[in-house]
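Notebook p. 47: complex prediction with magnesium ion.
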Amino acid sequence: MKLRTLRYHINEGIKGIFKNGLMSLASIAIVSACIFIVIISLCLAVNIDYILEQLESNVGISVMFGETPDEEQIAELEQEIKQIPHVTDVQYNSKDDALDEAKAMFESDSLESLRDDNPLPRSFDIKVDEIKNQPAVISALEDIQVSFEESLNEAVTEEVTEETTAEESTEPVTNEAGAVVPVVIDEGITEITTQSPDTLSIGDEGYVFKGIEKVKHAAEITNMLTSINIIVRVFSLVLIAILCVISIGIIMNTIKLTVFIRKNEINIMKYVGATDWFIRWPFIIEGIVIGLVGAVIPCIICWIGYNGVVNFVEGFSFIQSIAQLKSASDIFFTIVPIALVIGILLGAIGSINSLEKHLNV
Amino acid sequence: MIKLENVTKVYEDNGAVALRDVSLNIDKGEFVFIVGSSGSGKSTFIKMLLKEVDPTSGSIIIDGMDITTLKRKEIPYLRRKVGVVFQDFRLLSSKTVYENVAFAMQIVEASPKNIRRTVPQVLALVGLSKKAKAYPNQLSGGEQQRVALARAIINKPPILLADEPTGNLDPETAWEIMELLQDINMRGTSVVMATHAKDIVDRMQKRVVTMQKGVVARDVREGGYDDEA
Ligand SMILES: Nc1ncnc2c1ncn2[C@@H]1O[C@H](COP(=O)(O)OP(=O)(O)O)[C@@H](O)[C@H]1O
Ligand SMILES: [Mg+2]
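Predicted complex, structure tokens below:
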């Protein structure tokens, strides 16, 4: 196509929009409405995703220690855990930290009496980059738990062997550090379970870990967040797909009407020897311009509206502390091109489809 | 220039036989009237030369090319060689006289310079220089047909078809159009005109092909409407 012909087509296409002013306005309104809904559902989807992501990073894993490991061993474990892929942060909580936290949670000072003989375990709070990586991190932690426990047991056995040899006694020696494990139950009563490390081995039911007592994670919250995430994504995709189909249908009808009104004109063009593409182009350009204008309007409205929402939400600091919204420029940097492309496609597909029937003269 | 061999056209939807075994030769630069009563197949004949309808059997050769085998994509190029005017003018009502004529050149991607030079020439030829900026609804029937003629000949087609071009015009205006057609014919364009206007045909004394129920009943060189072959 020569440049002057392209100019002619653009000229004709734009003239066509004004010639059928009312129809064009109707089409633009319909495209706008559709893209408006597409943008809103995209905004929702992206933000729900983003908020879930932020919540996810708060759903961490806790590693609780028994009484056995000393501070030095715990520091070593911290290094080891930090090496696990996808672990973003490891936070140590001392017994005092745990007590403070419990006090804050129950809003009561009566727990203060426990301070000197604190039954609460020391622990790590471990953060994982993405919720889907949690299982892998947990199994890595459980491996560490077992190997650390084995190293503790070996150390104990060596000690025991030495002592036995020295005293030449055949009586079994109980190991205090390993045998007594405090378990916190209601009303602050400490139940003492005794256990012989010789009778149960790691992996047996009832075996109580002395080192890393427990790897705790909120499996339910994790699963819930993951499924919300999937539902939101599927739902918004389905909604967008349905809307696109509807708007193509509506544009097709609108352009069909335009074409029908100009059927005579098309007929005359064919008699004069115009090729099919020569006839199509002005209509396609008309559709594209309608689609573009129809996309730009909701983009501007939504951008302004979204900014308003972000500013409004920023006014509430308690919401800010839980999760934040994506910034308008962040989100619209992606949405605007998507909306424009959708607009162009809707217009072009709509006009091409509605033309074919009338070109057979 | 135009050669029909054993052309038969049966409209499939109603089974009407519009043309029956028509064979005809039209030379370069000829002026031919296709006459006959309503329903005798004149319009079908014209439409066939534009490949608006295809013959059921037989072949049509225009300018050495068998148009019955043309692909859909090639039809526009045939139509650029065959100008056409109709009884109802068929102008684009949203375009001015000038634009209606220039439009035919834009379709063949002529240069703007060429368009600006040629359109006024052709408008002068049909006597409409002063109406260039008018819209079709501001013109008389005769003037509208002149615009249609200007549009039909601007790309200098070797053949000009006219289907009852004077059907909507009063006798005086009709005769002006005929003079214009004759003028165009004198410049070397073959003219094929379907009509049932007896007075015009008698006055022109050109070749007359008479159709009767789809059959060529008479073919008279330099004759009148009712002349025997
Ligand atoms: N599109 C069509 N479909 C079916 N029959 C048609 C069609 N066009 C013309 N005919 C029939 O073909 C015959 C010739 O018509 P036409 O060529 O228009 O004659 P004329 O132009 O001489 O009046 C008529 O019987 C008419 O009814
Ligand atoms: Mg007719």
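Notes: The pocket of magnesium ion (ligand 2) is lined by residues B 42-43 (CB under 6 Å). The beta strands of chain A are 61-65, 87-93, 123-128, 180-184, 190-194, 212-217.
Next step: compare against the earlier run before touching the bench.
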